[in-house]
Amino acid sequence: MSHTEAEIASQPDCWRRAIALARDPEGPVRAALPRAGERVAVVGCGTSWFIAQSYAALREAAGQGETDAFAASEMPLGRAYDRVVALSRSGTTTEVLELLGAVRGRVPTTVVTAVPDSPVVGAADAAVVLDFADERSVVQTRWATTELALLRAHLGAPLEHLEADGEAALAEPLPGPLVDAGQFTFLGRGWTYGVAQEAALKMREAAGAWTEAYPAKEYRHGPISVTGPRSVVWWLGEGASDVADEEITRTGGRVAGFGRDPLAELVVVQRLAVAIAAARGLDPDEPRHLTRSVILG
């Protein structure tokens, strides 16, 4: 079993631990994460940027306050925020460290990281450390879903179903037609658009697959033109998609989506990415041209 496969399999346990941390009234998470009413910017790079998008949408939908998500390199420094939350697995990403340095002393900052002695911990005013979700693999799997489970729990989301959904997503065989597909389009709505973006990234990173991601209603505005007989269109949202199955099947494409919590759906995508990588002779633990952290000279 590769490191990636082992880390994928550990996710339900990681989620349970993260949810317990978020719900502990005396724990460090409550004090470190944004309070209701704060105007917040959430930043990250790569996977963490997509998780930031999901958290921002969730926080606003919960009535907790205006929340914007940015790639760390693109946050506008002239805007007024009550707090900046930075997401960084390694805690060494150059763009995140530069941003924390730029706002230090002007805006309170919180970092969510997997490494307790990483540079971002010293650069931020407060830290949430999920060291049990750290990974050896370059491609992020359990870290991404665990930090989002923590953030969802902090916002009060009912997550009693999540662990069971994750176990089911790990146990069921992957449908053969998914492994043989040549193109994937992932769709989300609201907070799950960030999850769809992350699903597409996982398939690109681990398997070099042709993947795209869009808000569901945007699918008709051009993206539908790439769907064909070897395509999969995958709904990663709650409830029914805004795109009718018949619209996809008329193109010759296949509809995917298992009706579980979007984090559990992401587990299936992660497993599929590993299976496609193996079929193509690729190593999901060491994807081409990527490193665990981007540190610029």
From TrEMBL:
Q: Could you state one GO biological process linked to this protein?
A: carbohydrate derivative metabolic process
Alphabetized Pfam families for the sequence: SIS
Instruction: Tell me where in this chain the SIS domain is found.
Output: 29-167
InterPro entries hit by this protein: GlmS/AgaS_SIS, GlmS/FrlB_SIS, SIS_dom, SIS_dom_sf
GO MF terms on file? Answer: carbohydrate derivative binding
From which residue to which does the signal peptide run?
none
UniProtKB keywords: Repeat
Identify this protein by name. Answer: SIS domain-containing protein
What is the organism field in this record? Answer: Streptomyces violaceusniger
